[in-house]
Amino acid sequence: MISGVILGSVFSCMIKENRRVKRKASKAVHAVGDFIEQVPSILR
Q1: How far is 44 from 38, CA to CA, in rounded Å?
Q2: Are 14 and 21 spatial neighbours (Cβ–Cβ below 8 Å)?
């Protein structure tokens, strides 16, 4: 949970500095979110 908050704050800072990064960052956030959702099933 804490790492997710840190990533979110870092991405928001990057997006504010460079709008071109916004699309890539949003895709990265979705990818990370999907990965985090899959982790519990992997650990089983």
Answers
A1: 10
A2: yes
For residue 12, how far is the Cα from the chain centroid? 10
Task: Parse the chain into domains and list their residue ranges.
Answer: 2-43
Amino acid identity of residue 35, one-letter, is F
Q: Which long-range CB contacts under 8 A does 29-32 form with residues at least 24 apart?
A: 32/4, 32/7
Q: What is the pLDDT of residues 4-13, one digit of tens each?
A: 777 677 777 6
Encoded tokens for 34: 């999907």
Q: Is the pLDDT of residue 30 over 80?
A: yes
Whole-number Å distance between alpha carbons of 39 and 41: 5
